Amino acid sequence: MNAQTKKGVLELCVLSLLQKRDCYGYEISQQLSKRIDIAGGTIYPILRKLKNDGLLTTYLQEESGGPPRKYYALTSLGRETYCRERAEYLDFARTVLAMLEDENDNKG
Questions:
Q1: I want to staple 56 with a disulfide (CB 3.0 to 4.6 A). Which of 39, 51, 88, 103 is the partner?
Q2: Percentages of the chain per state (helix, strand, coil), in multiples of 5
Q3: CB 43 within 8 A of CB 28
Q4: Which residues contact 32 (CB under 8 A, 6 or more apart)?
């Protein structure tokens, strides 16, 4: 799949993971890479942008046997944005899917 196409939905995917629970950066990267082919450093610029946009906040949490980890959490604006963008994306995806299915039905 085209890298630009993927890049366009990665922010929404990050918000989707964080609406379920707070996560640290590497954990987000691992969860996404199980489902989407992404490069290792792809997530951190997205997390920075979402934080700068006021959609995320961060906090440090001590981990046993290691340094504290930076966790990311949705702000109330982040939750609102996720709900709105999720609905918009699902409508868009349904429209594209219908067009692609219609194209296949019209062949032959």
A1: 51
A2: 60, 20, 20
A3: yes
A4: 10, 13, 14, 17, 38, 43
